[in-house]
Amino acid sequence: MTTTDRVAAALFAVAALIPVVVHDSFILDSVILILLWGALSSAWNVAGGYAGQVSLGHAAFFGIGAYAAALASARYAHSPWLGLVVGVALSLVAGSAIGFLSNRLKGPYFALSTIAFAEVLKIVASRWRGFTSGSEGVPVPFRPGFWTLGLTHVQWVYLALAVAVLYYLVQVYLERSRVGYQLAGVRETRTPPRRSASPPGGARCRR
Amino acid sequence: VDPAARLGSAQIDVVAQLAVSAILLGGIYALIAIGLTLIFGIMRVVNFAHGEFLMLGMYLAFFAFTLWSIDPWVMLPLALVIFFGVGLLVYALVMRGVIHASHNVQIFTTVGLSTALQNIALVLWSGDYQLFRPWHASVVLRLGNTAFNLSQVVAFGVAVLLTAGLFAFMKFAHTGRVMRATAQDRDAATLMGIDTDRVYRLTFAIGIACVGTAGVLVSPLYAAYPQAGLQFVTLAYVVVVLGGLGDMAGALAGSLIVAAVEVVGSYVFGTAWKEVLYFILFIGVLVFRPAGLFGQRGAESLGV
């Protein structure tokens, strides 16, 4: 366990204790968001930090996941958890395709290409009115229960915490694995070595 | 448009109208893109905050018109000076610190600047769409069977004049030659006694002056709001990548191509999908010819 791991564990423990002590929903909301943004950042960090490929289009993957979950529950009356699986699968497909096309670029060119992909998905989402309801968005009905993701604030904190911890562990694993070293290789070389190292697959795309 | 209406004798007129619209639009895109490509060519920085200066230009024209009823055309020379100053200021405060940093640091810096400017505009002026109509926005000119609006024609004319002026400056003025020398080889330029920091400062100020003025020019045609720059700047990215980042003549060609794709695309597929078309074009170029359609000097330093 490195010092960073200990600090992270301590912070996760604090987050786990907050709902026990605090009941103010504003603060709990903030904690949920902090954990979610933390998880999101670590997902971004796989491409941006380890591989040094600064993506400005990760919002697209977040959007795919969000739409999958929202549409699964609002349009098809399935569980958002099912949407989550679909969302991860779709993000993986989109991430692999986008990664395959844009990972041969570096620096500003890579950043520009990710903007282009994200814009295309944004336009599709806002114009495909019949399916996504366009810019009005998809209102998700609140149905209490774990299976429908109608959770209380406290439950949300623990769910977000679980996601954040999971992503942290994925990072720890990546950092010490073969893939992690390959990603660092991509970052440190001016011309990408072998493209087998990328796209960085799952963790990068996971919502 | 009903497909049947596109056939027959009206077809020639439609093509003429499309061509005129594409050229008018292309001139304005050129002025936006030229600043971006100039800054990249000389400073090797993609200015992701470029669109926000366009947005500031639109707000400048909007407030000058609504508060003091100053016509955007009168604001043009003033905007050039103001945005030159803004460019100098932003360079001193933000860009000078990262000019020698890695690409990633520069991307973060300019993306951060973009987000900051958008949110400052949101706080100061709210997210409402602000549109104003000076008299010339309602004047329609006709040539043969094509029609266009006076604001658009003048915007095109001014954009072409400014772009031509910038080309002449780069080609003939001593300072322009110094800037081109820096673009070709930073180290050699420094060894020849060129103060590269001064060149960067000037480059950034000129680039911002171009895009800020472009903002004033388009203000009678498009609404101003905090994210107004985004729609234009994504387009300017397409333009500069098509023409080769840093290539000024390429940016002109790129502007016309993008404008043509946009105009023809909106006619054939409807305006809703026109953006998808040029992004597909953009992605195609990035993937197959990342150095631009005409090749690009210095691209190898980016690992392209």
What does this molecule look like?
Chain A is mostly helical and 207 residues long. Chain A contains nine helices and no strands. Chain A is flat and about 50 Å long. Residues 192-207 of chain A have low confidence and may be disordered. Chain B is an all-alpha fold. In chain B, 70% of the residues lie in helices and 3% in strands. Chain B has eleven helices and two strands. The chains are: A mainly alpha (207), B mainly alpha (304). At the A-B interface, helix 5 of A face helix 4, helix 9 and helix 11 of B.
Core attributes:
heterodimer; A: mainly alpha; 0% strand; flat; B: mainly alpha; two-stranded antiparallel ribbon
What are the SSEs and their pairings?
The complex is a heterodimer of chains A (207) and B (304).
Chain A: H1 3-21, H2 25-50, H3 58-74, H4 80-102, H5 107-127, H6 129-132, H7 153-176, H8 178-188, H9 201-205
Helix pairs in contact in A: 1-7, 2-7, 2-8, 3-4, 3-5, 7-8
Chain B: H1 10-43, H2 50-68, H3 72-93, H4 103-125, E1 140-143, E2 146-149, H5 150-172, H6 174-184, H7 186-191, H8 196-218, H9 228-243, H10 248-269, H11 274-288
Antiparallel strand pairs in B: 1-2
